[in-house]
Write a structure and sequence with these properties.
Oligomer: single chain
Structural class: alpha+beta
Strand content: 15-25%
Number of domains: 1
Number of strands: 4
Number of helices: 1
Strand order of the largest sheet: 1-2-3-4
Helix content: 10-25%
Distance between the termini: 34 Å
Length: 67
């Protein structure tokens, strides 16, 4: 049985490729952030607490994507 997915507004990364290689993110109703493969919207979704997502973005913006 697949998990119930909330109806949310997914956004495609501005760095997504032209050939369907894209990452999409959405704020979930509970404040967490969902991350999924844009080619497979019904596939697995990574769910991160909002504070973890914000920390990840700060690391990427600082040039340290691997922590």
């Amino acid at each position: 049985m697949s998990p119930v997915r909330p109806s949310v507004a997914w956004r495609k990364s501005s760095y997504s490729g032209a050939h369907g290689n894209c990452v999409e993110v959405a704020r979930l109703p509970d404040g967490a952030v969902g991350v999924r493969d844009g080619k497979d919207p019904a596939g697995p979704m990574l769910v991160l607490a909002a504070r973890r997502w914000d920390a990840f973005l700060r690391m990427v913006e600082a040039g340290h994507p691997d922590g």
